[in-house]
């Protein structure tokens, strides 16, 4: 074998080996790049999964809130009509109370009629589970009472309801009108 042939033979494997090393280094670089992209994709996926879970929880909370609102609407749906009727009840009660002590027969007859109407309205309110609650002598509660005035009172402790201008009403378990009261000071 000639020197020239030996050189060519020795060059071929070296160049082949170098080429394999270059390919391996290129593959390693590609592999590192792919690993980096995979890590980025995992982070993006985790962020999207977290967002998805949060949106799902938020939607569940929204759905539950809407269900409660719908339930309240069905449960207290007629409260607006009842609230509109309450001032009439109050006026009738005032009329009956102001006639106490009058001895006119025509007035007595009118008062009996008014009392019948008041009793009828009261029965209908009870069927709708609308009831009054006592206030006089009770401790002032802002969830039940609207204080119209505060009066000095030596007979009562502080923050006790001493007079009631308008009764408070409750429908089922909800206060639909606060009692208008005078509170002791």
Index terms:
about 180 residues, alpha+beta, Nucleotide Exchange Factor Grpe, Chain A, domain 2, 3 domains, three-stranded mixed β-sheet, elongated
Description of the molecule:
The protein is of the alpha+beta class. The protein folds into 3 domains: about 1-75; about 75-130; about 130-185, Nucleotide Exchange Factor Grpe, Chain A, domain 2, CATH 2.30.22.10. It has helices at about 5-75, 80-100, 105-125; strands at about 130-135, 145-150, 160-165, 170, 175, 180-185. Strand 4 (about 170) and strand 5 (about 175) form a beta hairpin. The termini are far apart. The relative contact order is 0.08.
Q: What's the main sheet like?
A: 3 strands, antiparallel
Tell me the total number of β-strands: 6
Please work out how many helical segments DSSP would assign: 3
Work out the radius of gyration: 43 Å
Oligomer: single chain
Low-confidence stretches: 13-21
Shape: elongated
Number of spatially distinct domains: 3
| Distance from first to last alpha carbon | 126 Å
Order of helices and strands: HHHEEEEEE
What's the mean pLDDT score? 82
**Helix/strand/pairing class, anyone?**
alpha+beta
What order do the helices and strands come in, and which of them pair?
Layout: H1 3-76, H2 79-98, H3 105-127, E1 130-133, E2 145-151, E3 161-166, E4 168-171, E5 174-177, E6 179-184
Parallel strand pairs: 2-6
Antiparallel strand pairs: 1-4, 3-6, 4-5
């Amino acid at each position: 074998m000639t020197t020239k042939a030996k050189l060519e033979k020795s060059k071929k494997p070296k160049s082949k080996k170098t080429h394999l090393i270059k390919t391996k280094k290129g593959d390693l670089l590609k592999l590192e790049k792919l690993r980096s992209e995979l890590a980025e994709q995992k982070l993006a996926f985790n962020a999207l999964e977290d967002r998805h879970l949060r949106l799902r929880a938020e939607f569940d909370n929204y759905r539950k809130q809407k269900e409660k609102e719908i339930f309240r609407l069905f449960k207290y749906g007629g409260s607006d009509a009842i609230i509109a009727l309450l001032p009439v009840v109050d006026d009738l009660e005032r009329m009956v109370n102001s006639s106490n002590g009058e001895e006119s027969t025509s007035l007595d007859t009118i008062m009996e009629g008014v009392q019948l109407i008041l009793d009828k309205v009261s029965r209908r309110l009870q069927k709708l589970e609308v009831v009054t609650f006592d206030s006089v002598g009770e401790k002032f509660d802002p969830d039940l009472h609207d204080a119209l005035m505060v009066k000095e009172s030596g007979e009562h402790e502080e923050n006790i309801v001493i007079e009631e201008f308008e009764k408070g009403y409750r429908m089922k378990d909800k206060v639909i009108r606060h009692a208008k009261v005078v509170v002791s000071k």
